Structure formats: structure tokens, C-alpha cells
Amino acid sequence: MKCLSDYLWQTLVPLIFFSFIWMLFRFLDEQNQKEDMIKQHTQMELKFLKSQINPHVLFNNLNTIYSYSIEKPAETPELILMLSNNLKHVLYESNSQYVTLEKELHFLENYIKFQKIRTEGVKQIHYQTKITNQQLNIAPLLLITIIENAFKHSTLNSVISIDIEEQNKVLSCSCKNDFDSANTDTTEFKIGLNNLKKRLDLLYPDKHTLVITNHKQFEVVLTLDLT
Prior knowledge:
The protein has helices spanning 2-71, 76-91, 101-118, 143-153, 187-203; strands at 99-100, 124-131, 137-138, 159-167, 170-178, 208-214, 217-225. It is of the alpha+beta class. The protein starts with a helix and ends with a strand.
């Protein structure tokens, strides 16, 4: 009996040990596969969401240039140069996971210049920035969704206020505009803001706040932790 007991002990212990090791490696391998699948799904979803943003930005710019080429042809070359820079950002920089805050703000400034020209005499635009570190990284084409909505869905003779600040690696973007909910189809801008929420949840989980209010003015305030 003792020999049998010793035999079983010598046989079962290594068997149990190696079975445990095998199960552990299998578990770790399955976890890695799940993480890879989640990562691939996230990248595909982000790519899809960004692809919905790009055409809107480009078409708005092209429409502005077309109008100016008819009304003020002498000033059209400057607009084409700005469009070239925006195209570069949208087509190339936006494929990166992150860009510098400096590049993203330059893109926004060009976009706002276009809108000032397009809405001259129709809307008042106040834009200011206060940035302490322009070399911080940010996911591209996040802020443009907020700003584009303000221009597209504000009323005539409205005031659009855009304030972007960064301090201690925390970015705040506030955008206000007059808004007539009774005479505006809200479906389109809800889609844009919902896409923004999805991107923020994927890129900045637990590192952002997005507050949307709609009283006398429509206001969106985004806060991002860029650490």
C-alpha cells in the first residue's frame, strides 16, 4: 500500500502541477486574444467615427472658397492656402492617434477664419485661447465637432463664443451659441455630439467631462485630462 501511495503521489502531483500550468497559460492566452479583439474593435470604431467627421469639415471649406471666388476673387488664394493646411491635417494628421495641441489649434483657427468670412455681417464670433503648453498631445478632430455644431445650428445675427484653455495639462473647451430649438432640426447635431461622446469614451475613459446645456443659449463644455 505504501508503494502504491508513493507511486500515486509521485504521479499525481506532477500531473496536477502541469495541468495547472497549462490552464494558466491557456487562460492568459485567451485574455490576450480578448484584449486584441477589443483593441481591434476600438480602432475600427474610431476610424469609422472619424470618417464621419472629415467630409463635413472639407465640404464646408470648399463651399466657402467657391462663394469667395465669385464675390472676392482677389482674396481666394489665401483661402486656398488655408484649405490646403486643413486638408493636410484632416487627411494625414487625423490618421495619427494623437497630435500636438499646437497642430490641432492651428487647424481650428483656420476653420474659424473660414467661418468668419462666410458669416461676415451675419454672426458675431468671439474666439480666444489660453494655452500654457502647446506640445501636449490630443486626439485629433475632437474639438472641431463642438465648434462646427455651433456654426451650423446657430441663429442669424447670433453670437458665437469659443474659449479654449489649458492649465496643468487639463484642457477646457467652451462653446456657446444662440439656438432656436423650435425651428431647428436637432437630429444632425445630436448625431455629431453622440459620435463625440463615443470617441471620448473610447479615447479618454474616466479622463473627460462633457456638459451640454440648452436654455437661452446652446452650450457645450468639454474638459480633458491630457496627462
